[in-house]
Amino acid sequence: MRLFLENGLKGTRGYFLYKRVDGNNVLKELNKMGNIWVVMTVDERKAAKLELEPFNWDKCDD
Question: How is the chain split into domains, by residue range?
Answer without folding.
Answer: 2-48
